[in-house]
Amino acid sequence: MKCGLFVVLFTLFTPNFAQADAKVMNAGEAFGQLIYLSVEDVQGRSEKFQALSPLSIPVFAELPMELSVVAGAITLKQQNMLSHVQIKSRARKTPNLDISGLEGQLNNPLMNQFSDGDYVHMLLGRDGSILLEPSTEEAAIEFSKRKNQEEVKIEFDLGPSDIFSTKDLGSKDFRIVGSKAANYAELAKILNTPERIIVREGFALPFYFYQEFVDSNPKISDSIQKILRDPLMKKLTKVSYRDKKLMDLRTLMMDESSIVSDELLVRLLEKTSQIKDAKGKLAKMKFRSSTNSEDLPNFNGAGLYTSASFNPYKKKNELGYDEKKKELANTLREVWSSVWNLRAFDERTYFGIPHKDVKMGMQINPSYKNEDVDGVVVTKDASGRPALPENRKGVYIEAQRGDDFSVANPEPGTRPEQILVSVDRNNPLDKSKYEIVIIQKSNISDNGKEILPNDNPNPIMSDLEIKDLAFQCLKAENHFKTVFSTNDDDSFALDLEFKVDSENSGQRQVYLKQARPYID
User: Fold this and answer.
1) What is the pLDDT of residue 20?
2) CATH entry, 373-517, from 3.30.470.20, 3.30.750.24, 3.40.50.720, 2.120.10.80
């Protein structure tokens, strides 16, 4: 423990020590094995990357686009407050450390005492304190066994078999279509007016059709039952074994021989044929996962499941009726099969969610073809800056140009625009009292296609757009607080996804496409 004591003493008594430049992104405690991952490991998803387990503490040279269940995380690249690593760490309550600003990084005294494969005890404090000391595999296993998570309860109703229009649904229907689709419908009810559409109309598939698909294919049903009974699927270190079993199941589900209800396909084609784009052509549709194990008040499940697109055209030529049915069936299979992704399976295991009770619904709406801006909003100050005055409330925005570069899953070298809108806490819908602070500029070109070596000085959104976005999100928060919270405490906030697009109306405007409780 001499080495660990060394770190503690420096943390507590040497404020000018270089590790002060290490940033605690998420406080917490972990015992695990350090796994050093190069840029090539992350970008190429090497075997080493794919072998990460709940006993691992990966040290990322590059930010990953997804993060499997791990004990904790350390990054050599700067993180954003809404980066995927931070979102997952916050949701799982696991420690997350950014050492991008640490002098020497891995050669710093904080890190140079350890090697790839060493087991450590990591304790990150809310006050920024850092403890990193040697440990053992036995300690990591024992800690993992006794780590308690808040119980996540999931519900489902397999009875309704309609294809529901967004206007006919609301948040109360989460047991039928999943929280994503139910919240989407609720958001549309709150914000849409006869003069302006902020949440595009669409429709939703209930859980009924996922269960019908599984029950109609005995090989799929049998494979699921075998996985649920297999004791090796519960072994923390058997990552490759779990991956192979789940991949085999998804392959079975994706096979064109797996039966998809013809009646469902006919009904869906009738629905989608009624939705046209701005040019009067059939719209490309987005089929978004809406399970009963995501977008919950205590479990967001961000990035666990797959969304897919249905395009009624190929090389600008409209597909024939049978071709559309075939394309549509493949789209449904792709989304349904994502229930059994490794990342989703391990996340559910970590939170004690019973796999047998997970059902997949879908939120279906027109795709955004060439949006001007894509981003994420939190209706509280999640910027990590000094706290606002007590009479002010923050709305934190991360935005990126175009649709080639994601905010939630950033590509290497990209930086989103970070914006903080300060509002009057007592009058949050009074736009005249909104104050905008640009924390960081985007480094994407104006056309949204290239990564620039330096920040793009041009604003990504106008002040009017920023204020409108904050206003709509706060209006939604005010409503959803009564849906999700039993009291009027200030801790409640929403996590929303937005677009700025001009395709439908001919001029740029803000659209919202998802709302869920923000887990802090």
Assistant:
1) 59
2) 3.30.470.20
Which pLDDT belongs to residue 487? 60
Copy the structure tokens of residue 278: 């701005």
Low-confidence ranges of the chain (pLDDT < 50): 1-18
Give the integer Cα–Cα distance in Å for 289 and 359: 10
| Collapsed DSSP state (helix, strand, coil) of residue 134 | strand
User: What's the pLDDT score for residue 10?
Assistant: 40
Q: How does pLDDT run across 39-91, given as a tens digit for each residue?
A: 999 989 899 999 999 999 999 999 887 888 999 999 998 887 777 788 889 88
The reported pTM is 0.87
Task: Give kind and range of the element (H or E) at residue 180.
Answer: helix 179-191
pLDDT at site 149: 64
What is the CB neighbour count within 10 angstroms for residue 70? 25
Cβ burial, residue 42 (10 Å; 0-12/13-18/19+): buried
Confidence (pLDDT) at 82: 76
pLDDT on residue 177:
98
2-146 matches 373-517 in fold: no
Relative to beta strand 203-205, strand 313-314 is unpaired
Q: SS3 helix, strand, coil % of the chain, rounded to 5?
A: 35, 20, 45
Which superfamily does CATH assign the domain made up of 2-146 to? Phosphohistidine domain (3.50.30.10)
In the prediction, which pLDDT does 409 show?
67
Structural domain boundaries of the chain?
Answer: 2-146, 164-366, 373-517
β-bridge partners, 400: 374
**C-alpha to C-alpha distance for 403 and 501, rounded to whole angstroms:** 11
CA torsion angle for 466, 469, 471, 475 (degrees, to 10)? -160
CATH class of the region 164-366: alpha beta
Q: Please give the pLDDT value at position 16.
A: 36
SS (H, E, C) 328-363: HHHHHHHHHHHHHCHHHHHHHHHCCCCHHHCCEEEE
